[in-house]
Fold each of these.
Amino acid sequence: MALTDTVIRTATAASEPYTLTDEKGLSIQIQPSGSKWWRFRYRFDSKAKMLSLGTYPDISLKDARARRDQARKLLADGVDPGAARRAAKPGRVGKRPYRLPTRTRNGEIGGQTKKRLPTLHLYQATRWSNS
């Protein structure tokens, strides 16, 4: 059964997230906080995937259906819509996320150390002190 704007507007939050389905893979997920997220579920390379299309009052039912149709066109052309979205973001190709330098136990500033310092647990300390 196709969703209507009235059904979406009157949907209330529950203790667990739940979904109201539209058609052709489109659904809206109602969170316990009351937010309503549009989701498009599809399969690509025999794997189930999900694409977020935005939140409900910002993206209307008509707009969500249009975005779903665009994603279905990409699928028909053999393109993963999620990968196409990630590739369209500027500056994300081949870059790792920036990490702030951390301070080591020696007081030196650097990234993650290759060699981890051993930790002494309480049971090891009592066992070693008795022998």
Amino acid sequence: MKKDIHPNYIDCTVKCSCGNTFQTRSTKPELKIDICNTCHPFFTGQQKFIDTGGRVQRFADRFGSAKEAVAAREAAKKAERAAELEAIEAKKKAEREAKAAEKAARAASFAAKAEKEARKAAAAEAIEDEGISLDATDLDQEVTGSEPVAVSDASAPEADAAPAAEAAEEAAE
């Protein structure tokens, strides 16, 4: 061993927080410890709450609000998820309403077409009852209420065209 590089190894008195003292050897003359073999739960068999210097209280002060922070974070996540679900539901509802509006518009156009066809059929029936025949364009003009241009049937006299137009107008009304 080299000389003058090692500390002195002397007798030491160990004092525990429970009041137990015993002698051992160390580089220091006195040691103060928190727990020893007479008060440690492993050796005593008793569960003992050991709080030296308020360590538990300091821990609770420092990290005790962690429960509150975790609860607040979880509540924020829950609120965010609820907002996402609400947005998704609102989007689905808007899509359903748009689809229903589109369906209603198609139904209205179909109803208008059906009504126009019904008026055209009624006008054609009225004209057939009078014995005058018109082509499809003349019927469209009569059903829509515009003036007919000319009678397409060359065999029908012009005198019969005027009463046919009046009959078609009456049927349209």
Amino acid sequence: MVQAGIVFGFDHDHKDVFDKTLEACERLGIDGATVSILTPFPKTPIYEQLKSEGRLLGEDWSRYNSKTAVAFKPKNMTADELFDGYRSFRRRFFSLGSFVRRMRVSRTNIAVNFIMNLGYRLGLLFSASGDKSVRPCRLL
């Protein structure tokens, strides 16, 4: 089973990184993924770099969680484009269609993978992602 750790927002990332990453995951048969937004935590080299370049969006520490907000100005897209691309990637990666495409390649523990991917998909429904178009649903 291959679980990928994917981080979006590096200086070499352009708006097409989300589509290209999804295509690669499906082509390679990636079973699951933990997806995050690059976050410049204090006292790290990336924090110091972005601070010196004037690219930090402030010190509201609620933005520094890698999941629900962008804490800096990306180089090749806007902060909104990064956040929207990240959310879109997660929705598409954990869709049934993407799961089927990835499992055609992986063929590893399909039942376990289905449950894992379903769990991530349901997590999207209950996350604090700010997506007002998604409403929690009852499971039982």
